Amino acid sequence: MTDRAANRPTAFFGSTTPPRKPISAPVVGPRLSPAAGVVVDGIDVSLPIPPPVKERLLDAFRRHHVLVFRNQTLNREQQFLFIANFGEVERSRAANKRYGVAHVISNLGGDGKPVDRSASAVSNYNWHTDKPYYREPPMMTALYAVEMPLQGGDTEFANTVMAHSALAPDVQLRIAGLRVAFYWGAGQSRSEEQARADTGIEDAVDHPLVRTHPETGAKALYLGNHASHILGWPIAEGRALLDQLLAHATQPQFVYAHRWRVGDLIMWDNRCLLHRAVANFELSTQRRILHRVVVRGTVPF
Ligand code: OGA
Ligand code: MN
Questions:
Q1: Quick one: which of 46, 110, 126, 288 could link to 78 by a disulfide (CB 3.0–4.6 Å)?
Q2: Is the pLDDT of residue 100 over 50?
Q3: pTM metric for this prediction
Protein backbone atom coordinates (compact mmCIF):
# COMPACT_ATOMS: atom_id res chain seq x y z
CA MET A 1 0.00 0.00 0.00
CA THR A 2 2.66 2.50 1.09
CA ASP A 3 4.92 1.29 -1.72
CA ARG A 4 2.18 1.62 -4.26
CA ALA A 5 1.22 5.04 -3.04
CA ALA A 6 4.84 6.20 -3.06
CA ASN A 7 5.55 4.74 -6.46
CA ARG A 8 2.59 6.11 -8.30
CA PRO A 9 3.06 9.87 -8.38
CA THR A 10 6.64 9.70 -9.77
CA ALA A 11 5.61 7.20 -12.43
CA PHE A 12 2.54 9.27 -13.20
CA PHE A 13 4.60 12.36 -13.89
CA GLY A 14 6.99 10.57 -16.19
CA SER A 15 9.83 9.27 -13.99
CA THR A 16 12.02 6.67 -15.68
CA THR A 17 11.57 4.31 -12.71
CA PRO A 18 9.58 1.40 -14.14
CA PRO A 19 6.32 0.76 -12.32
CA ARG A 20 6.37 -2.39 -10.23
CA LYS A 21 3.16 -3.75 -11.60
CA PRO A 22 3.14 -5.16 -15.14
CA ILE A 23 0.89 -2.51 -16.63
CA SER A 24 1.12 -3.88 -20.14
CA ALA A 25 -0.26 -7.33 -19.35
CA PRO A 26 -3.78 -7.12 -18.01
CA VAL A 27 -5.12 -10.55 -17.12
CA VAL A 28 -8.80 -11.05 -17.84
CA GLY A 29 -10.26 -13.52 -15.34
CA PRO A 30 -13.16 -15.96 -15.73
CA ARG A 31 -16.68 -14.66 -16.24
CA LEU A 32 -18.18 -13.67 -12.87
CA SER A 33 -21.72 -14.71 -13.80
CA PRO A 34 -23.47 -15.90 -16.97
CA ALA A 35 -24.94 -12.41 -17.31
CA ALA A 36 -21.80 -10.27 -17.17
CA GLY A 37 -18.58 -9.31 -15.44
CA VAL A 38 -14.87 -10.11 -15.30
CA VAL A 39 -12.06 -9.09 -13.00
CA VAL A 40 -9.09 -7.56 -14.81
CA ASP A 41 -5.86 -8.10 -12.91
CA GLY A 42 -2.29 -6.96 -13.39
CA ILE A 43 -3.06 -3.36 -14.20
CA ASP A 44 -2.71 -0.17 -12.22
CA VAL A 45 -5.28 2.10 -13.81
CA SER A 46 -3.75 5.24 -12.30
CA LEU A 47 -0.90 4.90 -14.83
CA PRO A 48 -1.11 5.72 -18.54
CA ILE A 49 -2.07 2.69 -20.64
CA PRO A 50 -0.42 1.91 -23.98
CA PRO A 51 -2.71 1.36 -27.03
CA PRO A 52 -2.47 -2.48 -27.05
CA VAL A 53 -3.66 -2.56 -23.43
CA LYS A 54 -6.54 -0.29 -24.28
CA GLU A 55 -7.51 -2.63 -27.12
CA ARG A 56 -7.44 -5.64 -24.77
CA LEU A 57 -9.64 -3.81 -22.29
CA LEU A 58 -12.10 -2.77 -24.99
CA ASP A 59 -12.25 -6.33 -26.25
CA ALA A 60 -13.02 -7.59 -22.73
CA PHE A 61 -15.58 -4.80 -22.31
CA ARG A 62 -17.43 -5.86 -25.47
CA ARG A 63 -17.46 -9.50 -24.38
CA HIS A 64 -18.23 -9.16 -20.67
CA HIS A 65 -19.98 -5.75 -20.34
CA VAL A 66 -18.70 -5.10 -16.80
CA LEU A 67 -14.96 -4.80 -16.07
CA VAL A 68 -13.82 -4.93 -12.45
CA PHE A 69 -10.40 -3.60 -11.40
CA ARG A 70 -9.66 -4.45 -7.77
CA ASN A 71 -7.43 -2.68 -5.23
CA GLN A 72 -7.01 0.54 -7.15
CA THR A 73 -5.85 3.73 -5.48
CA LEU A 74 -7.32 6.58 -7.48
CA ASN A 75 -8.01 10.22 -7.02
CA ARG A 76 -10.77 11.74 -9.11
CA GLU A 77 -8.36 13.17 -11.68
CA GLN A 78 -6.75 9.75 -12.18
CA GLN A 79 -10.13 8.09 -12.57
CA PHE A 80 -11.07 10.74 -15.13
CA LEU A 81 -7.81 10.23 -17.05
CA PHE A 82 -8.18 6.45 -17.18
CA ILE A 83 -11.79 6.55 -18.32
CA ALA A 84 -11.00 9.25 -20.92
CA ASN A 85 -9.10 6.50 -22.78
CA PHE A 86 -12.46 5.12 -23.84
CA GLY A 87 -14.16 8.23 -25.15
CA GLU A 88 -15.28 11.73 -24.38
CA VAL A 89 -16.07 12.14 -20.71
CA GLU A 90 -19.37 13.93 -20.17
CA ARG A 91 -18.94 17.35 -18.71
CA SER A 92 -20.33 18.06 -15.32
CA ARG A 93 -23.32 20.37 -15.33
CA ALA A 94 -21.78 22.32 -12.47
CA ALA A 95 -20.51 25.53 -14.03
CA ASN A 96 -17.61 25.91 -11.61
CA LYS A 97 -15.94 22.67 -12.71
CA ARG A 98 -12.95 22.99 -15.04
CA TYR A 99 -14.08 19.80 -16.72
CA GLY A 100 -16.11 16.83 -15.71
CA VAL A 101 -13.79 15.05 -13.32
CA ALA A 102 -15.51 12.35 -11.32
CA HIS A 103 -18.46 13.45 -9.26
CA VAL A 104 -19.61 11.92 -6.00
CA ILE A 105 -22.45 9.39 -5.62
CA SER A 106 -23.29 8.91 -1.97
CA ASN A 107 -26.05 8.36 0.54
CA LEU A 108 -25.00 11.42 2.53
CA GLY A 109 -27.37 14.30 3.07
CA GLY A 110 -26.57 18.01 3.14
CA ASP A 111 -25.45 17.67 6.77
CA GLY A 112 -22.92 14.97 5.81
CA LYS A 113 -24.89 12.23 7.55
CA PRO A 114 -26.24 9.09 5.87
CA VAL A 115 -29.84 9.27 4.73
CA ASP A 116 -32.09 6.66 3.15
CA ARG A 117 -33.49 7.98 -0.14
CA SER A 118 -33.85 4.56 -1.75
CA ALA A 119 -37.66 4.61 -1.77
CA SER A 120 -37.76 7.62 -4.10
CA ALA A 121 -39.22 6.76 -7.51
CA VAL A 122 -36.28 8.52 -9.18
CA SER A 123 -33.47 6.99 -7.11
CA ASN A 124 -30.69 4.78 -8.48
CA TYR A 125 -32.30 1.96 -6.49
CA ASN A 126 -34.72 1.46 -9.39
CA TRP A 127 -33.59 -0.47 -12.48
CA HIS A 128 -32.43 2.04 -15.07
CA THR A 129 -29.88 2.86 -17.72
CA ASP A 130 -27.94 6.10 -17.43
CA LYS A 131 -29.42 9.20 -19.06
CA PRO A 132 -31.56 7.52 -21.75
CA TYR A 133 -33.38 10.86 -21.96
CA TYR A 134 -30.36 12.25 -23.84
CA ARG A 135 -30.27 12.13 -27.65
CA GLU A 136 -26.84 10.57 -27.24
CA PRO A 137 -27.00 8.57 -24.00
CA PRO A 138 -23.69 7.63 -22.35
CA MET A 139 -22.12 4.40 -23.55
CA MET A 140 -20.14 3.73 -20.39
CA THR A 141 -20.30 4.57 -16.70
CA ALA A 142 -17.42 3.99 -14.26
CA LEU A 143 -17.76 3.89 -10.48
CA TYR A 144 -14.92 3.80 -7.96
CA ALA A 145 -15.65 2.61 -4.42
CA VAL A 146 -14.34 5.10 -1.87
CA GLU A 147 -16.31 4.05 1.18
CA MET A 148 -18.66 1.09 1.52
CA PRO A 149 -20.81 -0.45 4.21
CA LEU A 150 -19.20 -3.52 5.80
CA GLN A 151 -21.75 -5.68 4.05
CA GLY A 152 -24.12 -5.03 1.18
CA GLY A 153 -24.46 -1.88 -0.87
CA ASP A 154 -24.25 -3.98 -4.05
CA THR A 155 -24.84 -2.80 -7.59
CA GLU A 156 -26.79 -5.15 -9.89
CA PHE A 157 -26.57 -5.37 -13.67
CA ALA A 158 -29.12 -6.99 -15.99
CA ASN A 159 -28.02 -8.15 -19.43
CA THR A 160 -30.61 -6.85 -21.89
CA VAL A 161 -29.13 -8.74 -24.87
CA MET A 162 -29.76 -12.04 -23.07
CA ALA A 163 -33.20 -10.80 -22.09
CA HIS A 164 -34.05 -9.91 -25.69
CA SER A 165 -32.86 -13.24 -27.08
CA ALA A 166 -34.89 -15.11 -24.46
CA LEU A 167 -38.16 -13.52 -25.64
CA ALA A 168 -40.53 -15.68 -27.68
CA PRO A 169 -40.15 -15.00 -31.42
CA ASP A 170 -43.66 -13.58 -31.70
CA VAL A 171 -42.90 -11.09 -28.90
CA GLN A 172 -39.63 -10.12 -30.60
CA LEU A 173 -41.60 -9.50 -33.76
CA ARG A 174 -44.28 -7.49 -31.96
CA ILE A 175 -41.80 -5.14 -30.28
CA ALA A 176 -39.40 -4.70 -33.20
CA GLY A 177 -39.63 -1.13 -34.47
CA LEU A 178 -41.34 0.30 -31.35
CA ARG A 179 -39.95 3.49 -29.87
CA VAL A 180 -39.79 4.40 -26.18
CA ALA A 181 -40.28 7.93 -24.85
CA PHE A 182 -37.81 8.70 -22.04
CA TYR A 183 -37.64 11.63 -19.67
CA TRP A 184 -35.97 12.15 -16.35
CA GLY A 185 -38.17 10.98 -13.52
CA ALA A 186 -40.71 9.19 -15.69
CA GLY A 187 -40.87 6.41 -13.10
CA GLN A 188 -43.04 3.48 -14.04
CA SER A 189 -45.37 3.15 -11.12
CA ARG A 190 -47.25 6.41 -11.66
CA SER A 191 -50.70 6.73 -13.15
CA GLU A 192 -51.60 7.79 -16.67
CA GLU A 193 -53.15 11.01 -15.29
CA GLN A 194 -49.91 11.89 -13.57
CA ALA A 195 -47.94 11.16 -16.71
CA ARG A 196 -50.20 13.41 -18.79
CA ALA A 197 -49.89 16.22 -16.26
CA ASP A 198 -46.13 15.84 -16.10
CA THR A 199 -44.28 18.63 -17.89
CA GLY A 200 -41.26 16.34 -18.39
CA ILE A 201 -43.22 14.37 -20.93
CA GLU A 202 -43.06 17.26 -23.39
CA ASP A 203 -39.28 17.08 -23.40
CA ALA A 204 -39.24 13.31 -23.81
CA VAL A 205 -36.59 11.89 -26.11
CA ASP A 206 -37.45 8.69 -27.95
CA HIS A 207 -35.22 5.73 -28.76
CA PRO A 208 -35.79 2.24 -30.18
CA LEU A 209 -37.10 -0.25 -27.62
CA VAL A 210 -34.82 -2.80 -29.25
CA ARG A 211 -31.48 -1.18 -29.94
CA THR A 212 -28.54 -2.58 -31.85
CA HIS A 213 -25.21 -2.52 -30.06
CA PRO A 214 -23.00 -0.36 -32.31
CA GLU A 215 -19.92 -2.52 -31.71
CA THR A 216 -21.23 -6.08 -31.40
CA GLY A 217 -24.39 -5.83 -33.50
CA ALA A 218 -26.36 -7.56 -30.73
CA LYS A 219 -29.99 -6.56 -30.15
CA ALA A 220 -30.76 -5.30 -26.66
CA LEU A 221 -33.86 -4.06 -24.85
CA TYR A 222 -33.65 -0.37 -23.97
CA LEU A 223 -35.97 0.66 -21.14
CA GLY A 224 -35.87 1.16 -17.36
CA ASN A 225 -36.98 3.74 -14.84
CA HIS A 226 -36.77 6.75 -17.16
CA ALA A 227 -38.93 5.06 -19.80
CA SER A 228 -42.36 6.66 -19.95
CA HIS A 229 -44.40 5.03 -22.70
CA ILE A 230 -44.38 3.68 -26.24
CA LEU A 231 -44.64 6.27 -29.00
CA GLY A 232 -48.03 6.19 -30.70
CA TRP A 233 -49.60 3.89 -28.07
CA PRO A 234 -52.00 4.86 -25.28
CA ILE A 235 -49.79 5.67 -22.27
CA ALA A 236 -51.22 2.96 -20.02
CA GLU A 237 -50.78 0.27 -22.65
CA GLY A 238 -47.18 1.28 -23.34
CA ARG A 239 -46.38 1.32 -19.64
CA ALA A 240 -47.86 -2.13 -19.19
CA LEU A 241 -45.60 -3.49 -21.94
CA LEU A 242 -42.56 -1.71 -20.49
CA ASP A 243 -43.34 -3.09 -17.01
CA GLN A 244 -43.64 -6.62 -18.37
CA LEU A 245 -40.41 -6.38 -20.31
CA LEU A 246 -38.57 -4.88 -17.33
CA ALA A 247 -39.77 -7.72 -15.09
CA HIS A 248 -38.59 -10.19 -17.74
CA ALA A 249 -35.19 -8.52 -18.25
CA THR A 250 -34.31 -8.35 -14.56
CA GLN A 251 -34.85 -12.02 -13.70
CA PRO A 252 -31.97 -13.56 -11.73
CA GLN A 253 -30.56 -15.52 -14.68
CA PHE A 254 -29.86 -12.23 -16.50
CA VAL A 255 -28.31 -10.46 -13.49
CA TYR A 256 -24.76 -9.97 -12.21
CA ALA A 257 -24.59 -8.58 -8.66
CA HIS A 258 -21.40 -6.71 -7.88
CA ARG A 259 -20.33 -7.02 -4.24
CA TRP A 260 -18.13 -4.01 -3.71
CA ARG A 261 -14.79 -3.75 -1.97
CA VAL A 262 -13.23 -0.37 -1.30
CA GLY A 263 -10.74 0.26 -4.12
CA ASP A 264 -12.85 -1.39 -6.84
CA LEU A 265 -13.15 0.51 -10.08
CA ILE A 266 -15.82 -0.89 -12.35
CA MET A 267 -16.90 0.21 -15.80
CA TRP A 268 -20.04 -0.98 -17.55
CA ASP A 269 -21.75 -0.82 -20.91
CA ASN A 270 -25.00 1.15 -20.80
CA ARG A 271 -25.92 -0.03 -24.29
CA CYS A 272 -26.67 -3.60 -23.22
CA LEU A 273 -27.22 -3.46 -19.44
CA LEU A 274 -29.68 -2.08 -16.95
CA HIS A 275 -28.39 -1.43 -13.44
CA ARG A 276 -29.49 -0.46 -9.96
CA ALA A 277 -28.08 0.08 -6.50
CA VAL A 278 -29.34 -2.46 -3.95
CA ALA A 279 -30.64 -1.31 -0.57
CA ASN A 280 -29.16 -4.33 1.21
CA PHE A 281 -27.48 -2.36 3.99
CA GLU A 282 -28.60 0.12 6.59
CA LEU A 283 -28.77 3.23 4.48
CA SER A 284 -29.64 5.64 7.25
CA THR A 285 -26.56 4.83 9.36
CA GLN A 286 -23.83 3.46 7.07
CA ARG A 287 -21.87 5.52 4.58
CA ARG A 288 -21.62 4.52 0.91
CA ILE A 289 -19.48 6.78 -1.30
CA LEU A 290 -18.43 6.28 -4.91
CA HIS A 291 -16.86 8.45 -7.59
CA ARG A 292 -18.50 8.42 -10.98
CA VAL A 293 -17.33 9.18 -14.52
CA VAL A 294 -19.57 8.86 -17.60
CA VAL A 295 -18.49 8.49 -21.24
CA ARG A 296 -20.60 9.92 -24.07
CA GLY A 297 -22.27 7.56 -26.46
CA THR A 298 -23.98 7.85 -29.84
CA VAL A 299 -27.61 8.00 -30.97
CA PRO A 300 -29.18 4.55 -30.39
CA PHE A 301 -30.43 2.75 -33.50
C1 OGA B 1 -24.94 5.38 -11.21
C2 OGA B 1 -25.70 4.37 -10.45
C3 OGA B 1 -25.63 2.73 -8.73
C4 OGA B 1 -24.92 2.50 -7.44
O5 OGA B 1 -23.95 5.89 -10.67
O6 OGA B 1 -25.32 5.65 -12.35
O7 OGA B 1 -26.77 4.00 -10.86
O8 OGA B 1 -24.83 1.31 -7.05
N9 OGA B 1 -25.14 3.88 -9.35
O10 OGA B 1 -24.49 3.46 -6.81
MN1 MN C 1 -27.09 4.78 -12.92
A1: 46
A2: yes
A3: 0.90
Give the three-state DSSP class for 163: helix
Q: Are 181 and 231 in contact (CB under 8 A)?
A: yes
Name which residue sits closest to atom 7 of ligand 1, judged by CA.
Answer: 124
Taken in order 131, 192, 122, 252, the sign of the CA dihedral is: negative
Distance between CA atoms of 231 and 78, rounded to whole angstroms?
A: 42
Residues 120, 262: contact at Cβ < 8 Å?
no
For position 150, what pLDDT does the model report? 93
Cβ–ligand 1 distance for 141 under 6 Å, the answer yes
What pLDDT score does 194 carry? Answer: 82
How far, in Å, from the CA of 69 to the mean position of ligand 1? 17
Residue 288, pLDDT > 90, answer yes
Name the residue at shortest CA distance from atom 4 of ligand 1: 277
Residue 16: its pLDDT value, please?
59
Q: Nearest-CA neighbor of 32 among 209, 236, 295, 264? A: 264
Q: In 10 A of CB 99, how many CB atoms?
A: 10
pLDDT class for 41, splitting at 50, 70, 90? very high
pLDDT attached to residue 93: 64
